[in-house]
């Protein structure tokens, strides 16, 4: 009876280790699923970040073009104002009827057109600044979120490493326990067929001593 009691004890050990091994495998699978999910999210955020940075560059380039347009129109406006002043003096001269291109009404219309262009460009610059601020906020948010995900990923990597070591240790103990069970089973079978065991090995040993 003692030999078969030992077999049952070792079977219980093997069963417990097998349960632990399965739990470890499930934990590792869950950790890996979480890692892959975060890695996928980080890849998506990287693509989004690059896209926004490209858009920011486009907005910056547009801003430079608008600023150049304003500067050019302001230069033209200054020149027109100077010419207008001179044209107003010439209009009082006897050659007034010869000033077809330098008529003050034509110059004033050119000034008004230049001013409208400056105003339009200024409005576009304002919209550009608003868009730029929004884009930069988006990149900041992505960077912050990505940092949080990388911290989570580092923790998962630590958990995975620890779980893998536990898995390796449990698998080794299970192999040793299975070998011990096989040896105990072979020894018990030498005494005959298996019998029902009521008492534990410690109880049997206590009665024998």
Descriptive report:
- With 209 residues, the chain is mainly alpha-helical.
- It contains 3 helices and no strands.
- It has helices at 2-91, 104-189, 201-208.
- Helix 1 (2-91) runs antiparallel to helix 2.
- The longest helix is centred in the first third of the chain and has 90 residues, at 2-91.
- The protein starts with a helix and ends with a helix.
- The relative contact order is 0.17.
**Annotation, overall tally of beta strands:** 0
- What's the end-to-end separation, in Å? 15 Å
Given the structure, what is the number of helices?
3
SSE run: HHH
**Apparent shape:** rod-shaped
Mean pLDDT, to the nearest integer, reads 85
State which percent range the strand residues make up: under 5%
| Biggest sheet statistics | none
User: Which residues form runs of ≥5 with pLDDT under 50?
Assistant: none
Rg result: 43 Å
Helical residues, percent: over 70%
Q: Which class best fits the helix and strand makeup?
A: mainly alpha
Features:
0% strand; mainly alpha; 209 residues
Briefly, what is this?
The protein contains 3 helices and no strands. The chain has helices at 2-91, 104-189, 201-208. The longest helix is centred in the N-terminal third of the chain and has 90 residues, at 2-91.
Tell me the layout of helices and strands.
Blueprint: H1 2-91, H2 104-189, H3 201-208
Helix pairs in contact: 1-2
